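Consider the record:
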Amino acid sequence: MILSYIRKNQCKRLFYPLMLLGVVIFLVWRSPVTEYVTKRTISNAMLINDSMAKKVLYAKIKTGTLYYSGEDCLAGGELVGHYYYELIGGSCHFYLIRAVAGYPASKTLEGQTIIGRVDAFEPEILDPLTQKLAEDISWDAKSLKSVCQKYFVNQTAYLNRREIVLMVVLLLVFVLMIVVFIRTFLYIINPRLTKTYRNLEHYGNPEKILSDVEKQIRRRILLQTKTLILTPRYLVELSDDICAIIPLPEVLWIYDHAAMRRTIKGRQLSYTIHVVTMKGEEYTLTGKSHREVSAIYHELNTRYPNFFFGYSKEHQEMVQYVLHEMKNEKT
């Protein structure tokens, strides 16, 4: 019964990781992550037309000598890059190169290997760019514009700071989800790996304790709520948040606190039960009502009057002292 519940509970916990993984896959699909990996190597003499631009988002190009056009790219008043050009095969190819050294830009760049995004020129950028270049090389602006490509390779758009952060976050989330999936599947296959089962090792043979718990649940339930079962020897919590088996003879201190929580029905008072055992284990059972807490206290106070009941500074100090002394006895 208990192991079956652990399996079902672990299956339910797959929902949110699956949902988050779906979001990650969607963001990867909508982001240029895959294009970064599958960037295409093209010749610097190749003309990039509309058809190619649709297929090639990022390109790797080995250029010849590049010449500074005299124009720069600014974003928010900050220098981002410099426009360089290359005349090859009767056409003019432009590249936006990162402004690593700031001002002034180098007049020429020899044999560059550029990885960047293939972007289309906006008229307000291309017109002044060709006009300035035509003046510098003493050429007619209209004739120059006719041989200029309408697409340029934008090095500043490849692995910029924002996209690097996005890729790192997506990678970390993806790795985390894989770890969660592996752990959850292992728990489903073998519930004895879960913390619920391993905690029982502090109190004896886990298999014998589980067998005893299930016998008591079948025959001697003292109190049962939606998520909690009380038997003469065990307090068992079976909720979506936690699956816990607490041997009552091992309990040292039990107390609760209340807090207002927002629910569909409005603000309601919700109680949390804290249980500390003689082994130093602490359990937190949330989402209880005042009626449940009172009933549990009544049953436990009757059967185990030696517990520390309720929170107080004195109880906290006494519990810490007892746990400290028990630890010293072991050593």
